[in-house]
Amino acid sequence: MNQEKRSVLTPEQVGEAMARLRGVVNQTPVMRSRTVNEMTGAQIHFKCENFQRIGAFKFRGAYNAISQLSEAQKEAGVVTHSSGNHAQGVALASQLLGVKATIVMPHNAPAVKLEATAGYGATIVRADAFEREKVSAALVAEHGYTLIHPYDNDEVIIGQGTAAWELFDEVGELDLLFVPVGGGGLISGTALAAAGLSQSCKVIGG
User: Strands (DSSP E) along 17-171, which ranges?
Assistant: First the structure.
């Protein structure tokens, strides 16, 4: 994790990202299932980020982070390490913003992810899975790229939180929000959104 001192993130920053991403990200649908509702005895809402650009919420964070770089940083280019969705998110966001992107991807990355990432115009560097961060750091040192970390990046976290913000806008108050957890960027952003839009919603990771 990044050990340098960082500011405290706020729900207001997620609201600002909502305005920034409007017209760029897809406002993904919220689906409901009568069968699931009957099974659980609750009203369940599914926020379908599989309908997002690149097929995942990762595009939100990638675009938000890259759009906030200085002109000098954009001119130098960005780098990240990922085996799939974040790679595609950074590649597409960079293409839209006119920024050079280099993606460090492991040798075992799925071919479909490699092809999609390359299709968005990114340069792909292959590396062993456990060497991705080391290779990315070397590229930063050599070329002056800005690292867009998959989850340990404030603007990525803020961007991911817009998915939950949209959900609250679409359905109103929620009692519980269940969020998948990998690196932690999505649940962190979700917690920010919930803190700003709800008096009592509990965010649960799994």
Answer: 30-31, 46-47, 78-81, 101-106, 123-127, 146-147
Contact, 103 vs 87, CB < 8 A? yes
Overall fold of domain 58-147: Rossmann fold (3.40.50)
Burial of 50 (0-12, 13-18, 19+ CB in 10 A): exposed
> What does the domain layout of the chain look like in residue ranges?
11-56+156-201, 58-147
* pTM for the model: 0.94
Q: What is the pLDDT of residues 76-108, one digit of tens each?
A: 999 999 999 999 999 999 999 999 999 999 999
Is-contact 167 45, C-beta < 8 A?
A: yes
- Which pLDDT value is given to residue 104? 99
Q: What is the DSSP letter of 41?
A: T
User: Residue 5: what pLDDT?
Assistant: 61
Q: How many CB atoms lie within 10 A of CB 121?
A: 13
Strands 78-81 and 146-147: parallel
- What average pLDDT score do residues 118-147 get? 97
Look up residue 41 and give its amino acid: G
Spell out where the chain has E strands.
30-31, 46-47, 78-81, 101-106, 123-127, 146-147, 176-179, 202-205
